[in-house]
Amino acid sequence: MTPIDRRRFLGTTGLAAAGLALAEAKADATAAPRLRKAFMLGGDLRKGQLRDQFRRLKDAGFEGVEINSPNDVDRDEVLQARDSTGLVIHGVCDSAHWKDTFSDPDPKVVARGVEAAKKAIADCAAYGGTTVLLVPAVVNRQVNHRDAYARSQAAIKQLIPDAERHKVKLAIEEVWNKFLLTPPEFARYIDEFRSPAVGAYFDVGNVVEYGYPEQWIKELGKRILKVHIKEYAKPKRFDYLLGEGKEIDWPAVRRAFDEVGYHGWVTAEVPGGDLDALKDVVRRMDRVLGLG
C-alpha cells in the first residue's frame, strides 16, 4: 500500500469509526428511558455495618438506596459505604415529618420540623442525592384539612431556598395521613408552590385504598420526581409480596409511567432480609415493572 493509499484508507476507516460512534450516540439518545431499581433502607442504618448493608443491596442487584435523615450515623461512614460499594444514595426521607409535623398547631413543633428538613436537605446534597421525601401534613381531630393545607405550604416555602441552594428537590409523598386524597388536589397543592424545587413522590401502594395508581400517575404526570412501590390488597393490606396482591394492575401502572414519560428511580419500600430475600425483591420488581 502506497503512503497515499494508506492515508486514504486510514481516513476512510476513521470516518467510518466516527460515523459508528455518532450512530451509537444517537441510538443512546433515542433509547427508551429506563427505570432504576433502589431499596428503601429508611432508618435501618446500623453503625459500623453500613458498608455491609450497602454491599448486600448492590450484590442483590439494586443500583440505589434511600435512607432517612436526620440520622445518628456519621456522615463519613455513609459516604465510605457509598464509595466502596458504588451504590447510589439517590435521596433521603425526612425522619421527623411524622413527629414534628408541618401542620401542627404549635409553631414550635413546626419550627422543629423545618429545622429537621433543612438537615435532611444538607445531608441529601452531601450524599449526592437529588430529593428529600416529605410527608407534608397530618389531618386528625385537632387539625382540619384547611389548616393542614395552609400550615404545611407555609412551612415548605421556608425550605425552598435551602433546596435550591443545595440543588435538591422536595418530593411530597401521599401517605395515610388523611390529606391530599385525590390526584387533582395533590397536583394543585404542588403547583401552588410555583417552584421547580417541589414535586411529587408517588407511592403506588399508598393510593390503592382510595384510588387507582394508574389514574394518579396520569394526573400527576411530570410532577412525579420519584416512585415507591409496594404491594397492597385486602385484607392484609401491605403484607403481600410484590406481585402477589390482587388489586394493583401492574401492567396498567407501567403503561401509565410510559405514557407520562417517567423514568428514573423506583424504590422498593418493602421488608428486606438476607441476600436471597433481597434478590427476590429485585426479581419481583423486574416482573411487576416489566423489566425482566
Structural class call reads: alpha/beta
Major sheet, described briefly?
8 strands, parallel, barrel
Q: What's the β-strand tally?
A: 8
**What would the principal axes of the Cα set say about the shape?**
globular
- Topology pattern, helix = H, strand = E: HEHEHEHEHEHEHEHEH
**Low-confidence parts:** 6-31
Q: Overall pLDDT, averaged?
A: 89
Percentage of β-strand residues:
15-25%
The spatial strand order of the largest sheet comes to 1-2-3-4-5-6-7-8
Q: Give the helix tally.
A: 9
From the alpha-carbon coordinates, what is the Rg to the nearest angstrom? 22 Å
What is the first-to-last residue Cα distance? 51 Å
DSSP helix fraction: 40-55%
Tell me what the structure shows.
- By secondary structure, the protein is of the alpha/beta class.
- It is 47% helix and 16% strand.
- It contains nine helices and eight strands.
- It has helices at 3-30, 50-60, 75-85, 107-127, 145-166, 183-191, 213-220, 250-260, 275-289; strands at residues 35-42, 64-69, 88-94, 131-134, 169-173, 198-203, 224-229, 264-268.
- Strands 1-2-3-4-5-6-7-8 form an eight-stranded parallel beta barrel, surrounded by six helices.
- Helix 5 links the parallel strand 4 (131-134) and strand 5 (169-173).
- Helix 2 packs across helix 9.
- The longest helix is centred in the first third of the chain and has 28 residues, at 3-30.
- The protein is globular.
- Mean pLDDT is 89; it is low at 6-31.
SSE order and pairing:
Blueprint: H1 3-30, E1 35-42, H2 50-60, E2 64-69, H3 75-85, E3 88-94, H4 107-127, E4 131-134, H5 145-166, E5 169-173, H6 183-191, E6 198-203, H7 213-220, E7 224-229, H8 250-260, E8 264-268, H9 275-289
Helix pairs in contact: 2-3, 2-9, 4-5, 6-7, 7-8
